[in-house]
């Protein structure tokens, strides 16, 4: 299945990117996320284990995601019940306080049983990802930039 979603968001691209990248906070606002653990994070990559549970169906997946803040994060499966699981988030700054977000996910479960049992749940999750992060961006204030010095010169 291929899912493509996009939205215009009245939040800075950096803020939305930081929410998407911070998997450790997913359980606080994604009802299907029962747990998340960051395995590795640096400026170029984030890797995490995500525990998914919805309507009595559950599984864990591990992703390893190359990133370029605030424009891009790829989604690559390392472990989980999928034959194929690849995607990406792309964010384009429209102005300092707005951006466009594009989400693409191409996935296929690794067995007919998983497709039948978890497929409907995962289809719903994948189709609502952009909406969930846009809503979260409205709930969590964007960090304020540091104030400019009164004379307009950067501090020493």
What does this 3D model show about the protein?
Helices cover 24% and strands 47% of the residues. With 156 residues, it is of the alpha+beta class. The protein has a 7-stranded antiparallel beta sheet, covered by helices on one side. Strand 6 and strand 7 (98-109) form a beta hairpin. Helix 1 (13-21) packs across helix 2 (112-139). The mean pLDDT is 92.
Structure in a nutshell:
The protein has two helices and seven strands. The chain is of the alpha+beta class. α1 (13-21) crosses α2 (112-139).
Strand content: over 45%
| Topology order in helix (H) and strand (E) letters | EHEEEEEEH
Helix content: 10-25%
CATH-defined superfamily = START domain
The termini sit apart by 54 Å
- Shape by Cα distribution: elongated
Largest sheet: 7 strands, antiparallel
CATH C-level category: Alpha Beta
CATH architectural category: 2-Layer Sandwich
Mean pLDDT over all positions: 92
Q: What structural class results from the helix and strand content? A: alpha+beta
The value of Rg in angstroms is 17 Å
Number of domains: 1
Number of distinct beta strands? 7
Q: Identify the strand order in the major beta sheet.
A: 1-7-6-5-4-3-2
- Number of helical segments? 2
Spans of at least 5 consecutive residues whose pLDDT stays below 50 are none
CATH topology: Alpha-D-Glucose-1,6-Bisphosphate, Chain A, domain 4
